[in-house]
Amino acid sequence: MNWALLPKYSEEYIRGVKDFVSNGFANFGVGTELRCPCKKCINRFWHSRDVVQDHLICQGPYPEFVNWIYEISTSKFKKISDTSDDMECDQGGFGLGDDFDEMIRNSYKNDIDTSGKNQMNKDAINFYRLVEEGKQPLYPGSKTFTRLSFVVKLYMLKCTCGFTESAFSAILELIKEAFPNSNLPPSFSAAKGMIKELGLDYEKIHACPNDCMLYWAKNKDENICKVCGVSRWKAVDNDKNDILEKDDRKQYKVPAKVVRYFPLKPRLQRMFLSKEYSELMTWHATGRINDGKLRHPADAKGWKSMDASHPKFAQENRNVRLGLAADGFNPYRTMSISHSTWPVMLVNYNLPPWLIMKPENIILSTLIPGPTQPGNEIDVYLQPLIAELKELWETGIETYDAHFNNTFTLHASLLWTISDFPGYGVLSGWTTKGYLGCPECHYETSSTYLKHSRKVCYMSHRKFLPPDHKFRFDTKRFNGEVETNLCPEPLSGNFIVRLLGKFRNNFGKLKGKKKDADCPWKKKSIFFELPYWSDHLIRHNLDVMHIEKNIVDKILGTLLNIGGRTKDHLNARLDLQEMGIRKILHPVKSADNNHFEIRAACFDMTRKEKEDFCSVLMNARLPYGCASNISRCVQLNERKISGNSLSTVFGIYCVVEPLLVDCYILKMVMSIFF
Known about the structure:
The structure is a single chain. By secondary structure, this protein is an alpha+beta fold. The protein is 35% helix and 11% strand. It is built from 23 helices and 18 strands. The protein has an eight-stranded mixed β-sheet. It has a two-stranded antiparallel ribbon with strand order 1-2. The protein is globular.
């Protein structure tokens, strides 16, 4: 019987609510919150565990969710790890309460029979052996922590709070002294080795501080950069040199720059050691609805083109398709320090769309340190990743699949990159500024230099419209001309390879770089070293959120006439006059001939209209999780909007776009009837 239909005061109903809350948070919770399905919240608002439980007991479930609530509360939704025979776990698994602990639980819940171990390769056998050893209790009778989970948790605290290695060892000694029966490693080195044996380690690769080369592969033993001649090691002061000469202890050299590289192959192998995760790795082929609608990257032309060009790779559904994303950020959380660290991330597209962008499924590949961005020289730091991708494409790697209980040769390919517009130029090698700044129009870019604004303006966007579109013949609202040009054909990968066949890259920040003014290419991208890269239909994607942020910033600055952010200023009006369009907006000389008078544009607002506009944004209510608090960015008295984060701008965009569309439709109706 469905307990959700019973009276709310009955013991069975209260027990069912507790089961729903437990299973619901384990399977559908985000952090410490879950959508509340009570009559009041109707699955719209997120609440903590206690609040959801109280709402269901006091308010009752929403009628349409009764069957769903009952189904979630049943035993089939309980995580297997919660019923482990070895020990009882709390809500955070083995006391970790983080994504690493989830990975450990995945390995616990997929025990393999002895007969199945005959199908494992050496790496899989070692991993399962380490997991079995990690199941040892922290002390006799422990039901909260295992030996491995406690060491991992303590190591995380060291990284978060900045413990020294000696402090870590002292804490271990103190715990062993206070609790003699505790099963802990004797020192920090032993604890680190215990974690390192799990296999998800990273490599420290020394780099030239001028981004010329990596001390890697055949150059790993070099001490001086072959390009700029700068030392591999940091210089030591003369005073310190005197001290070091008197000290007979072993001297350690400090590298000038260190790149962290996280090997890809062991991380891909680890995905198939979990039965559940291994099954999800074939979702794009076995679980996807193939009805012609675009729901997943596998539905896109780029994916299908890749499969058609390389059918042998496409035959194995377990082969991994990856996307690469890169951008810079300031790790110090303050704008007073100029610093740019660039992480390079890999996205696993084999998974279902609701799991692809989960943080635990994003693979950190390379961490490029600052303080300056790598720019064009990012190819220097991508060499280890490209070498590994080439090996995964050509040779593959022997991998054990826990779902099918067999060993197969795993291959992987890189589908495309994802970045903002400046990052597009960094990764592709095409310049994103100047007269040929549009990578889509390439050599057919229509650009004009604005003399007064002192910038390049890109025109003739109407050529992407159908040949018979009415906007092509509209001279009043655009540049005063009829658009007759057609949409340019995109540059194919094979054409670019032939075009840049004799191009020689010149990496290094100190080297003088002479660039042909008519050549839009800054380098030949390292991605063309991949055997399949030139066959891709699409090689680089733009991150829409960054573009939306810039557009919304300019729209708001222009509508509210915010100084320094508006695009409607005197120089813009003079450029309109220079181009001979929008005559009503041309500036007019004042009576004394020393100043210009600017007429109001159709989008200019009065003081009262600006206050109303800001008030609408301040009082806007958007769905939970859609945007941050917009009201904090609105300055009603000054009629300004500032401090826009990406999430805030997205919320503002959701509010402003309907307003702009409504105003446009209203003006069209007014022009027809009045």
